[in-house]
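Hi W.,

Here's what went into the run:
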Amino acid sequence: MGADLHEVTAVRLGESGGRYTRQRRHLVEILERAGMPLAIPDILRGRRNLAQSSVYRNLAALERAGVVRRVPADEGFGRYELTEDLTEHHHHLICSSCGRVQDVEVPEDLEREVDRTLDRLARRAGFASVAHRLDLIGRCGRCATRGTAARA
Amino acid sequence: MGADLHEVTAVRLGESGGRYTRQRRHLVEILERAGMPLAIPDILRGRRNLAQSSVYRNLAALERAGVVRRVPADEGFGRYELTEDLTEHHHHLICSSCGRVQDVEVPEDLEREVDRTLDRLARRAGFASVAHRLDLIGRCGRCATRGTAARA
DNA sequence: CCAGGACATGAGAATGGTTCTCATCATCAT
DNA sequence: ATGATGATGAGAACCATTCTCATGTCCTGG
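Here's what came out:
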């Protein structure tokens, strides 16, 4: 992996009628290095050569091509990461206090059991072609030490 | 349950320095009847006596009181449901094509195993006080029958 | 009863993340 | 080269959400 990440991206972009331009390659590299879902400001920070509108447009293009995924956080804005077939299947630790998102992988056997069970439930409800999304909500170490009140 | 839903709400609202007004009661009843996360337009639909700004404000108040939870969907807007300690712990079937969200409960033992494992992983990563969120992504029956292209 | 204080409401303005528009550039095939 | 097709950047437009402010409502103490 790693080397052909860009090949795969190029192919998929081609299929969806797009080009693998320098800026799109740049975005893919940024997301690859980050290893965690990034918000637009994170991507823009200290890179004054990226136009915000182009970043949005290109992330949308990469999403359409199936290379990038928009992660919905409960922060009022979105974060972006590479799709799982380009990395490893993983889940997120989400800090409910500062919004920081961190990747985790869960054990194979739990994954399998979750998948199996959910698949059954989904079918029963008339849903098809199912993936799952499993996130942990908590407080990261940094937020836990200073006490940020959440609820009385 | 059901009867004291309103008592609990009144108490929690009181604790967080608010009143259980007619409109807030109304919102709680709407969410209770729905049994699925509702978007603001769903709540407003055919109820011209509710001011949009008040609905937002009141849902925020109810969320602060721990009665309501904002569910982040990948639709660009939020949905609201009663918190789990007022209903049952459950998860969502999310249709990736039409955005419809439906509640599901998963078997006790899977829940337990997920909780146990995630707790361990979280602790290892320095996260504390963890809840989980487990959603199914797929296509609902309605969207599956008519073919809505998602990706080539 | 009446007055005052504290919170709730409604309408619309303001905010902020995201998407669209449009004029200009780059890239590819002929 | 040359024209077509798509990409880029800057800013305007959009839309969900939040804020403002002028009332309204409810409870409390006199």
